[in-house]
Amino acid sequence: MLGEDDYGLEWQAIHNWLGRLAAHSPFTYRHSLGVASLALNLARIYGMDQGECQAIYAGALLHDVGKITITNALLMKKGPLTREEWLVIKNHPRAGVELLTASGISPGILEFVAYHHERWDGGGYNGLKGPDIPLGARIIALADAFEAMTSQRPYQQIRTLPNALAEVENNAGTQFDPGLVPVFFTMIHKLMKTASSLPLIRP
Ligand SMILES: [Fe+2]
């Protein structure tokens, strides 16, 4: 269990890593902020306690830190990847855990980084399946996929919100934890309600 001082040190380390990620790949940094916001909202609505929410938020911020070890040419590549390139991409959760281990990041957070590319049906990077995948990693995986679908990427077309939500629904029980998907929909509706109650900012 971390004491209050340890939390302070850990957040300092998290900020340092985010700074390094922002310097290497601003695009991946912005993606990580988006994923962290979605994952934190999802964890809260799912009813997780404060400590679990903090760990999920931290894990989501750091989930792609391993991409620091990948060149921008490969991160932004549009065409199909060679087998070697695919193996480099696939190694980024492991690379992230290796980088973070030495900086005092707690094992509970490292676990989320390690398993953020698992699928509910066992078809992910490490083949973990269903409830064997840590819940925080399942939450981050769903937030990660949704953020990727709804933001512009060099190698895929941006989706409209209804289209992205349909994709989440269609993949409940295969890619995503089917228990999380309805909670995800509740969260998106809540966020949209909040947004629609805010005054529009006009240029
Ligand atoms: Fe990733």
TrEMBL record:
<dbReference type="InterPro" id="IPR006675">
    <property type="entry name" value="HDIG_dom"/>
</dbReference>
<feature type="domain" description="HD-GYP">
    <location>
        <begin position="6"/>
        <end position="200"/>
    </location>
</feature>
<dbReference type="InterPro" id="IPR037522">
    <property type="entry name" value="HD_GYP_dom"/>
</dbReference>
<dbReference type="Pfam" id="PF13487">
    <property type="entry name" value="HD_5"/>
</dbReference>
<keyword id="KW-0378">Hydrolase</keyword>
<protein>
    <submittedName>
        <fullName>3'3'-cGAMP-specific phosphodiesterase 2</fullName>
        <ecNumber>3.1.4.-</ecNumber>
        <ecNumber>3.1.4.52</ecNumber>
    </submittedName>
</protein>
<dbReference type="InterPro" id="IPR003607">
    <property type="entry name" value="HD/PDEase_dom"/>
</dbReference>
<dbReference type="GO" id="GO:0071111">
    <property type="term" value="F:cyclic-guanylate-specific phosphodiesterase activity"/>
</dbReference>
